[in-house]
Amino acid sequence: MATQYEITGASAKGIAASVEQGVVEGALAPGTALPPVRRLAERLGISPGTVATAYKELRRRGIVVTHGRGGTVIAPTPAVASRRPPPVPEGVRDLAGGHPDPAFLPALLPAARLSPGVRSHRAQPRLAGLEDLARAWYERDGVPAEHLTFAHGALDCVARLLSVELRPGDAVAMEDPGYHHLLDLVPALGLRTVPVAVDDEGIRPDALRAALRSGARALVCSPRAQNPYGGWFSARRREALLDVLDAAPSEVLVIENDHAADIAGVPLHSLTTGGLARWAHVRTVSKHLGTDLRWGALSCDRTTLARHDGRMVLTSGWVSHVLQETVSRLMTDPGTQDLVAAARSAYARRREALLAELSARGVAAHGASGMNVWVPVRDEAAVVNGLRTRGWWVAAGARFRLGAGVGVRMTTAGLGEGDAGVLAGDLVGVLGEAQPTYGG
Q1: Which of 167, 193, 195, 413 could form a disulfide with 402 if both were Cys (CB 3.0 to 4.6 A apart)?
Q2: Phi and psi at residue 267, in whole multiples of 5°?
Q3: Mean pLDDT within 303-316
Q4: Where does the signal sequence lie (predicted)?
Q5: Cβ-count burial of 427 within 10 angstroms (0-12 exposed, 13-18 middle, 19+ buried)?
């Protein structure tokens, strides 16, 4: 091992706890190789079977991965390690956070009429008014909404769906590059990630076909505003993906994360309208109503609804009715809806302005929808650090990639008039003379 950290323990539980402590403390970094089973067993004076059991438990919990003859190593995103992004340096513009422009969010939340007093809503967990609003929200875009429920945001919802549907070791097809928190979530649940390449129209049919043939039992994808690449399903791509799913060797749970439904700037072509047996469409309001409103809606098939709500009853029980009322009043407030419409238009203009400025300078970039632009580069660290010296803070693509090419993500939501040209010029300066001909 490259590190001086000494794994200890006389039992499988003790060894696993020792490795976990090393990861938490930073002594065992992602990619660090653990000792071969027999070597560690000899050093600790225990049986190889005990070490093998410890390594199996660590794999189940997403802390380590095994690469066949390459041995067992600390996972790229171990479930117990902090994956928070680095703090934004002082004096720079933050284009890394993926956040909406505060100017387009309600300045004050409406005062709830409900009291947060002592009561249980397990028997009636959803406010009828918000359920009606959510159903209309879905039906506006043609998504079936017969079976509908609520959750505490997209990650909470996806985690519950995967945990009740799959078992440790099962494979999940994931966008590559994709949303880093989802990429971290899958191994944390003890599941195996199968990367699916994306382009400007979302996940690629050939990549999905390969993932399903390799045994993926679930697919998590974004039909628009794909993060970080910005792709969105065209009508033609939607049909091609449905053909692939129809020919899948086994039943697949398709989870669509439509996280930016109201500000994506493009129409929805959802897989859920294609007669899938198992499906779920998740929507949240954090991008257009406020990042602190941890509420999401889930439309799905009957079986998925029963499994999701059955697990929720045993955990959080329901989503706060005070939160539900707040969301409901915002969704029906004319002033707030005017802000959302203005945000949708502004985000599209700002994203398209940066793409145009980059294209004019010979820099290939991607951002067909949503709030982000993905720029393929040769050296992520050099670009991040170079732009920092010019007053811009962007996200290195390593957090979003499994096997995809390197790049950086720029959130364009907060760019003002004239910023796109300055940013594009600064990027070209960082990339150097050879970079303008480089695409991806």
Answers
A1: 195
A2: -70, 165
A3: 92
A4: none
A5: buried
